[in-house]
């Protein structure tokens, strides 16, 4: 498998974000400007062409740090739209995880994402809840549980 020279006159160039590819071009100092190649030049690989690719490196942007916590919220938290409110707020913050009612009357949730957004959800939003809720206690613990790849979901009662 060989590398073909790019057609610099193409009407639709390939656009790749600069943070994904680093490209170094080297031009010999005395290289004359060329606009057309002969058939022989096109067929034969040349290490002394005016423009040669010296290095290509691809990298993935760094992943932001992630935090996962499990919370149990107690008080008047069932029958007051708490789970749907939690789904809406978690999605707004870009968090992954789930929320569900528990038979003891509490609500349990797993939040995973950027630490500042997880803390925003737990400390500033879940401690208050939706307008009809009355939160009397909130317990949180770090978790290794997989939040899943489906965004933020509402789960059945346990």
TrEMBL record:
The annotated regions of Low complexity compositional bias extend over: 43-59
Q: Which residues form the active site?
A: 83, 101
Q: Which residues form the Acylphosphatase-like domain?
A: 68-156
Top EC class, one word:
hydrolase
Write down the EC number.
Answer: 3.6.1.7
InterPro entries from the UniProt entry: Acylphosphatase, Acylphosphatase-like_dom, Acylphosphatase-like_dom_sf, Acylphosphatase_CS
Q: Does the keyword Signal apply?
A: no
Q: Provide the catalytic activity annotation.
A: an acyl phosphate + H2O = a carboxylate + phosphate + H(+)
Instruction: State the UniProt keywords alphabetically.
Output: Hydrolase
Region: Disordered, residue numbers = 27-60, 138-158
Q: Name the Pfam families for this protein.
A: Acylphosphatase
- Hey, which family's this protein in? Belongs to the acylphosphatase family.
Q: Under what name is this protein listed?
A: Acylphosphatase
Mind listing the GO molecular function terms for this protein? acylphosphatase activity
């Amino acid at each position: 498998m060989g590398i073909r020279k790019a057609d610099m006159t193409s009407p639709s160039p390939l656009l790749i974000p600069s943070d994904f590819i680093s490209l170094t071009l080297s031009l010999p100092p005395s290289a004359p400007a060329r606009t057309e190649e002969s058939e022989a030049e096109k067929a034969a690989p040349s290490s002394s062409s005016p423009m040669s690719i010296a290095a290509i490196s691809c990298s993935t942007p760094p992943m932001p740090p992630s935090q996962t916590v499990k919370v149990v919220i107690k008080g008047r938290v069932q029958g007051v739209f708490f789970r749907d409110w939690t789904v809406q707020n978690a999605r707004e913050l870009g968090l992954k995880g789930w929320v569900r009612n528990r038979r003891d009357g509490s609500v349990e949730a797993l939040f995973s994402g950027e630490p500042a957004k997880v803390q925003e959800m737990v400390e500033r939003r879940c401690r208050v809840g939706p307008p009809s809720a009355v939160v009397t206690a909130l317990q949180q613990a770090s978790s290794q549980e997989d939040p899943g790849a489906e965004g933020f979901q509402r789960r059945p009662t346990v």
